[in-house]
Design brief:
Radius of gyration: 38 Å
Helix content: over 70%
Mean pLDDT: 82
Low-confidence stretches: none
Strand content: under 5%
Largest sheet: none
Distance between the termini: 110 Å
Number of helices: 2
Number of strands: 0
Length: 103
C-alpha cells in the first residue's frame, strides 16, 4: 500500500465540516458576523483596559523602586561618611598616643 499525503482526505473532511456547519448554524450569516464583530470589539476593549491597568501597575512599581533606591543611596552615603569619620578618629588617636609632643 502506497503512502499518500492524506491531503485529499483532509480537504474532503474540511468540506463536509463546512457544509454541516452551514446547515446547522443557529443564526443567519449577517447575525453571525455581527456577533463575531461584537465579540472582537469586547476582546479589544478588554485588552485595552488590561493594558492600561498593567501600565499603571508598572508605573507604581517603578516609582516604589526609585524611592527604595534613593533610601538605599542615602543609607550608603551615611555609612560611608561614618566610616570616614571613624578612620579619621582612629588616625587622630593613634597619632596622639604615639607622639605626645605632636599636640
Amino acid at each position: 500500500m502506497a503512502k499518500d499525503s492524506g491531503l485529499p482526505s483532509f480537504l474532503l473532511g474540511l468540506g463536509v465540516g463546512i457544509g454541516v456547519g452551514l446547515l446547522f448554524a443557529p443564526k443567519a450569516g449577517y447575525e453571525t458576523r455581527e456577533l463575531l464583530k461584537g465579540k472582537a470589539d469586547e476582546g479589544k476593549e478588554y485588552l485595552r483596559r488590561r493594558g492600561s491597568e498593567l501600565r499603571d501597575s508598572a508605573g507604581d512599581i517603578i516609582e516604589r523602586g526609585k524611592e527604595a533606591i534613593g533610601r538605599q543611596r542615602d543609607t550608603l552615603a551615611e555609612a560611608v561618611e561614618a566610616g570616614k569619620q571613624a578612620y579619621r578618629d582612629a588616625l587622630g588617636n593613634s597619632t596622639s598616643s604615639e607622639n605626645p609632643v605632636a599636640r
